[in-house]
């Protein structure tokens, strides 16, 4: 873009694009992907985050200006903790406003959750003449509470799902998809190869590779249920299954013992850094239904069994899972119904009718937007010229 000043068009030599993200990797992966896309276009970026995430020492933000702001969530807390959280957010907003008055950003992009509130509220508190464009990214099929509060200030809202509940009427909304890690984006279009099923009854005759992930720390419910469910499978299926599973460190030994007792090959780790290669190898994925996880399943084109996190503030993971289930790309099981018997029955069906797995993989891949980071960068650029700056 060229020009600037009173014309309302922002040059790439103007103030940085501030990216507001914090918390777990699910918020940081898309933030880093957008930052990479903007830097490639010649923009400068800065990061505003929370103490829980801290400063980044690798990736695109390592060489960018970083600001750690106070803040805390308020949803689902008692009145005293909610009050303290609200005061921390206001303190963070005041700090963010003071910082932005100095660095004069051209835009502020928030990725949801309470870490995005202080930077975007701070931007709104600036005088109109110095106010940057404000862009929100909503990663779930339900508008999060933080984004619902901030949406009234936004010059543009990017969504990961075609239908998002709770969007305000009259908002400038664009479907961009969820930016994913470059290694995952590289899987797009590779296709899916189901386990071979040469037997007359459709039973696979080669290995079945199962990937189980459960968020950044692993979900205990998967450690409790999945080994027992696999043990209930017919021997002709069970002997062909190998499992790669994310397990909490404190649960490793008991889960490893369970798989060894059942004679099931298993690789267990608290954290996997090579998620892309594991996704490429997997025939089926079992996990939560966070926005980033769902997007990665779509881009990789992998069928899944999704167990939404039951404590999510707006039950957004259930809405995410239903979006995939509705097109035949996944099977949704609520956590209260996620038992060894129920999972074993589903897996027995899937592993004896591998055509169903292949169809689900194709349905998921049809939803994929591997260029989501570029689409979101396009929206940020468009907001620079039409946003509050002019």
Can you characterise this structure?
The protein has 390 residues and is α/β, with parallel strands linked by helices. It folds into two domains: 5-179 and 370-386, Rossmann fold; 185-365, Rossmann fold (3-Layer(aba) Sandwich), CATH 3.40.50. Helices cover 39% and strands 15% of the residues. The protein has 14 helices and 13 strands. It has helices at 25-40, 79-103, 117-124, 145-150, 182-185, 220-231, 235-238, 252-262, 275-281, 291-300, 316-325, 340-352, 354-365, 372-386; strands at residues 17-20, 45-50, 65-69, 107-110, 133-138, 156-159, 173-175, 208-212, 241-246, 265-269, 284-287, 304-306, 330-332. The strands form two sheets. It has a seven-stranded parallel β-sheet with strand order 3-2-1-4-5-6-7, sandwiched between helices. Strands 10-9-8-11-12-13 form a six-stranded parallel β-sheet, with helices on both faces. Helix 11 links the parallel strand 12 (304-306) and strand 13 (330-332). Helix 1 crosses helix 14, helix 6 (220-231) packs parallel to helix 8 (252-262) and helix 6 (220-231) packs across helix 12 (340-352).
Quick rundown:
Keywords: Cell cycle, Cell division, Cell membrane, Cell shape, Cell wall biogenesis/degradation, Glycosyltransferase, Membrane, Peptidoglycan synthesis, Transferase. Residues 210-375 form the Glycosyl transferase family 28 C-terminal domain. The chain has helices at residues 25-40, 79-103, 117-124, 145-150, 182-185, 220-231, 235-238, 252-262, 275-281, 291-300, 316-325, 340-352, 354-365, 372-386; strands at 17-20, 45-50, 65-69, 107-110, 133-138, 156-159, 173-175, 208-212, 241-246, 265-269, 284-287, 304-306, 330-332.
């Amino acid at each position: 873009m060229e020009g600037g000043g009173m014309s309302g068009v922002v040059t790439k030599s103007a103030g940085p694009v501030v990216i507001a993200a914090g918390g777990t990797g699910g918020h940081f992966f898309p933030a880093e992907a957008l930052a990479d896309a903007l830097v490639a276009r010649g923009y400068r970026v800065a990061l505003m985050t929370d103490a829980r995430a801290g400063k980044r020492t690798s990736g695109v933000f390592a060489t960018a200006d970083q600001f750690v702001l106070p803040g805390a969530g308020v949803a689902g807390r008692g009145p005293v903790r909610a009050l303290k959280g609200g005061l921390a957010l206001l303190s963070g907003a005041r700090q963010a406003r003071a910082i932005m008055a100095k660095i004069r950003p051209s835009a502020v992009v928030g990725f949801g959750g309470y870490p995005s509130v202080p930077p975007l509220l701070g931007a709104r508190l600036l005088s109109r003449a110095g106010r940057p464009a404000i862009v929100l990214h909503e990663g779930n099929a339900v508008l999060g509470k933080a984004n619902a509060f901030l949406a009234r200030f936004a010059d543009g809202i990017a969504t990961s799902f075609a239908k998002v509940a709770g969007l305000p009427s009259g908002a400038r909304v664009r479907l961009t998809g969820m930016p994913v890690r470059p290694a995952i984006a590289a899987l797009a279009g590779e296709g899916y190869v189901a386990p071979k099923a040469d037997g007359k009854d459709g039973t696979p005759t080669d290995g079945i590779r199962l990937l189980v992930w459960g968020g950044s720390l692993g979900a205990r419910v998967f450690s409790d249920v999945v080994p027992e469910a696999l043990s209930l499978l017919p021997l002709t299926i069970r002997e062909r299954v190998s499992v790669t599973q994310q397990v909490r460190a404190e649960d490793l030994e008991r889960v490893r013992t369970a798989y060894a007792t059942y004679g099931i090959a298993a690789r267990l780790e608290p954290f996997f850094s090579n998620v892309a290669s594991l996704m490429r190898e997997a025939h089926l994925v079992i996990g939560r239904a966070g926005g980033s996880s769902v997007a990665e399943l779509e881009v990789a084109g992998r069928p899944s069994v999704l167990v939404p996190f039951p404590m999510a503030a707006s039950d957004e993971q259930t809405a995410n899972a239903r979006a995939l289930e509705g097109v035949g790309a996944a099977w949704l099981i609520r956590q209260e119904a996620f038992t060894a018997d129920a999972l074993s029955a589903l897996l027995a069906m899937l592993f004896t009718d591998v055509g169903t797995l292949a169809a689900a993989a194709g349905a998921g891949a049809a939803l994929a937007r591997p260029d989501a980071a570029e689409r979101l960068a396009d929206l940020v650029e468009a907001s620079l010229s039409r946003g509050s700056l002019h």
